[in-house]
């Protein structure tokens, strides 16, 4: 990784793990055809680094990875070593009506797409009158 003088070491480290300056995963939410589509930016993560869970109407997306790098010289001695750990998580309330089988996810080129059905609209109940006898 090359460090530019106008950027800080920490800024580069956070950007490497797919974080923006607030530490949140960038997410776009679209409503289409009776469902919500969440597009979550997770560059640098692999599909196996990502876990999605659903509990009590809350959908949680968590990505975590550990990485270590070593550079050795011609003699085989370590001249540079780095270790990094990164974890991000976001939770979205999707409603109690959503079941695990309703949620679909795919991961392609650093973008996690999660599709969740929107709440089913209840028919407006017609006002009924009670006869008085």
From TrEMBL:
Organism field: Grylomicrobium aquisgranensis
Record protein name field: Hsp20/alpha crystallin family protein
Membership in a protein family: Belongs to the small heat shock protein (HSP20) family.
PROSITE patterns with a match to the protein in the record: SHSP
Pfam family, one: HSP20
Family matches, as InterPro entries: A-crystallin/Hsp20_dom, HSP20-like_chaperone, Small_HSP
Residues covered by the SHSP domain: 18-133
